[in-house]
Specification:
about 70 residues, mainly beta, two-stranded antiparallel ribbon, 1 helix, 4 strands, about 55% strand, elongated
Length: about 70
Amino acid sequence: MLDGGKIRLSGDARLDVNKAYNFDLGESADLGPVEFSFDPLAAAPHYRLAKNFTVQGSRTIGVNTVVTP
């Protein structure tokens, strides 16, 4: 606790990301009363019309702030 009743918060926050952007055979989404099949989109990489992507990363963010409770 600092003078005046304020609080100092400090430390590190780490963010890890791992996401695959692709469509799999047999998957679908319900859009209201209509079911949308991903099968045509899953076949697109086979015909070289699309590419599957994987995003991976990590970042550490330093935190140093003063707050008033």
